[in-house]
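Model it.
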Amino acid sequence: MEIVTTINRAKYDVFKWRYELSIPKKLLFTLGMAGLIGLMAQLRFPIPLSPVPITGQTLAVLLAGVLLGRRWGGVSLAIYAGLGAIGVPWFAGFGSGLGYLAGPTGGYIVGFILAALFLGYFTDRYVRSRSFFSMLALMLFANFVLIYIPGLLQLGLWFNLVAGEPLAFTTLLSMGAVPFIVGDITKAVAAAAIARGVTPKSAYNGEVDKGKWANWRLP
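Modeled.
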């Protein structure tokens, strides 16, 4: 029991410390997270007949908001997108440049920013969101709505305007969504388990449900 108490206290101290960091230090952490996302993006597996590869970066994206909190999780993805656009080769396949963001997979990167902002908001705002099942639900929503929708929209637009090949909706899904569903669910489960393990189950910044966790605790 003493070990569990020590671990819980350590998690609380780390997240409270993270929340109270100065802006320069928060920027340093966001840059580090952007670098991790860039590294995970190189775990790349091409999909036949699709310009969208399977990558490992979604796992890091889902954790960015949890680990850095609201705003700063999104800032880390904005840094990732911005530095990649001006030439840092850390997009999938060591890609970079504005042309990459305007290409068939650029919409997913926009979705990454939205997902990190969304998850960071809930992590910092609600203690209840830090349970496994709550976090899994939030991550699945972030992945399949906030990432997939802008990703599919830009993929379809790119094929229509640039490649000159308008896609049927079913073809669009077969290129930009269906091959990734099982892998993305697996990554969301892993990310939710990590988030459940590292986040404190007590308020560190005045969460709106402070003091209510014990009344409706979830696994």
